[in-house]
Amino acid sequence: MKKILIIQDINQKGKEILSSHLGYEFEIIDDVNNPELKKKIVDCDGASLRTGKLPGEIINLGKKLKIISRHGVGYDNIDLETCKKNNITIAITATANAVAVAEHVMFMLLSISKRKNMYDDSVKTGNFSDRNKLPKTQEIWGKNILIAGFGRIGQCLIKRCLGFEMNVFVYDPFISSKKIESLGGKKVEDLKDTVTTMDAISLHIPLNQETKNMINLDLLKTMKKNCIIINAARGGIINENDLNQALNENLIFGAGLDVFETEPPKKDNPLLKNDKVFLSPHTAAFTEECMMRMAKETTQNIIDFFDDKLEKSKIVKL
Fold first, then answer.
1. Is the pLDDT score of 73 beyond 90?
2. Which of 26, 31, 84, 217 has the largest CB neighbor count within 10 A?
3. pLDDT confidence of residue 122
């Protein structure tokens, strides 16, 4: 009997997959900070994990642990070195959340460019007649957008950008020009040179030593004043203090953040009070449909692993 520990509850459809397979049983731990986690992980064969951090000291307790299946595509919340040392496989839901995140990026891009919060507030507060005094919005039609990172999310996003007749540029050293051009984009080789001509930038890259604080004040100063930057990837790619300064100094038009360097963000984070930034609480993938897809793929990855059928594209290279 394979014992599976679901760390942070998932959609019922995912649990039904485990229930329907003979030889599997599961328990749910509601929070990574629950003291019971240390006890429950000891004899589990596999575990699923959502957004909570799983440190090495916890992973080391899982003497039988063979796989951690992430409910999502990021895995910076898992101690990778410990997993590598213990020969634990990490799997991701590579195909589940692309549509939801791509839609969320478009939602942010349109909300910022059309000054959604400001215009909505003007009507609700009785200032309808002052509409001519409001700052003007901007169109995204015909504008240049850079998609940094061209995995499944980036490839979903390009279709939506082209639907708005935007000019799409792609920065991804691992994707060929032929592939990018076949989907209607143009490959660029140098990120620093490219951002100077972009009207919008959407980040879809992992957080690592090379990408941490990649978007900093020096780079922000080179951007167009009408530029909108959106991060629905990982917090830490953008230096938040630098972004706040750039917004206050009108170096760029606005920003959309679904992720933060510290989650939840600290109360004194200046971006929380900056009306030029549009925020969401790491919920780009929180559609009903996506949560169901991720739950099903998360548990199916565990079963496929033990059946020796797990696709290589879903396995994190350690």
1. no
2. 26
3. 93
Model pLDDT, residue 76: 86
Residue 239: phi, psi to the nearest 5? -75, 110
pTM value is 0.87
> Quick check: bond before 264 cis, omega within 30?
yes
Measured CA to CA, the distance from residue 128 to residue 121 in angstroms comes to 9
pLDDT at 95: 84
Same fold, 2-96+288-313 and 98-279: yes
- Indicate which residue of 70, 104, 115, 282 is catalytic: 282
Q: Is 21 a catalytic residue?
A: no
Report the candidate in 126, 112, 142 with the shortest Cα–Cα distance to residue 229. Answer: 112
Catalytic residue among 16, 81, 263, 311: 263
Fold category of 98-279 in CATH: Rossmann fold (3.40.50)
Q: Is 240 a known active-site residue?
A: no
Beta strands in 92-218 (DSSP E): 144-148, 167-171, 186-187, 200-203
Report pLDDT for 51: 86
Read off the DSSP letter of residue 215.
Answer: B
Could you give the CA distance from residue 232 to residue 254 in angstroms, rounded to a whole number? 15
How much is the pLDDT for 130? Answer: 86
The answer to whether the CB of 69 falls within 8 A of the CB of 47 is: yes
Grade residue 299 by pLDDT with cuts at 50, 70 and 90.
very high
Per-residue pLDDT tens over the stretch 117-173: 999 999 999 999 888 889 999 999 999 999 999 999 999 999 999 999 999 999 999
282 is catalytic: yes
- The domain ranges of the chain are 2-96+288-313, 98-279
Q: By three-state DSSP, how is residue 46 classified? A: strand
Alpha-carbon distance of 286 to 234, in angstroms, equals 16
Catalytically annotated residue among 234, 240, 261, 293? 234
